[in-house]
Amino acid sequence: MVNLGDVFPDFEAETTQGHVQFHEWLGDSWGLLFSHPADFTPVCTTELGRFAQLQEKFEERNVKLIALSCDGVESHLKWIEDIRAHFKVDKFTFPIIADEKRELAIQFGMIDPDEKDATGMPLTCRAVFLLGPDKRLKLSLLYPATTGRNFDEILRVIDSVQLTAKYKVATPADWKHGTYCMVLPTVKDEDLAELFPAGVEQHTLPSGKGYLRTTPCPDQ
Ligand code: BEZ
Question: Name one GO molecular function term (predicted).
Fold first, then answer.
């Protein structure tokens, strides 16, 4: 199990793009590792179709994509043909890891105990691990096998994690990129003008405490 802030373990794997040594493959980029229960399954097919359609959105954010599914490389390659045809995508630029023995899925806590395959083996859940350029885990999302992921949310949380890595802000409930942010509670009043040239609003509250401070999104 990998906790937030841990360096994500380096591992070797066979993929649809050849042998991968994970840390070397990541280089200086952000990385998104996401798992799937199995090839040729309907929900996974829609998800990989969405990842393929949104490849440029991840590239714009300097995020390298890598999928994991518990079948072999040959099966993955045939599945990619289905995905490209059904979703009408010319390019499928990211690799899919072959984790036939579920070794990586077990190591990284990606198992859904409630969903089993035809032989009674637990399936892989829909994990999403976002890694920073320092290879540390910045965010993890675990969905059960029966619930497909929301891609607006995946892009939204990447925007939040990347923004808050750069500026002394946190993003509020239902934040969308470009809307106001919260100033971190640790920022001193005397530093506000220098850190937030677009201004800070301190909201009046019954408690009299001045912790609710908003500022325009600092990267706009
Ligand atoms: C699917 O991808 O459709 C799926 C896989 C495993 C369990 C349930 C759904």
Answer: peroxidase activity
CATH superfamily membership of 12-155: Glutaredoxin (3.40.30.10)
Choose among 73, 118, 123: nearest CA to 102. Answer: 123
Shortest-distance Cα residue to atom 8 of ligand 1: 146
Find tokens 């999302």 and name the residue.
141
Centroid of ligand 1 to alpha carbon of 21 (angstroms): 28
Q: Please give the distance, rounded to the nearest whole angstrom, from the Cα atom of residue 79 to the centre of ligand 1.
A: 14
CATH 3.30.1020.10 describes domain 167-215: yes
* pLDDT tens digit sequence for 14-59: 999 999 999 999 999 999 999 999 999 999 999 999 999 999 999 9
- Whole-model pTM? 0.95
- 181 in catalytic set: no
Cα 167 to ligand 1 centre (Å): 39
From 116, 121, 146, 147, give the residue whose CB has the most ligand 1 atoms within 8 Å, as the site to mutate: 146
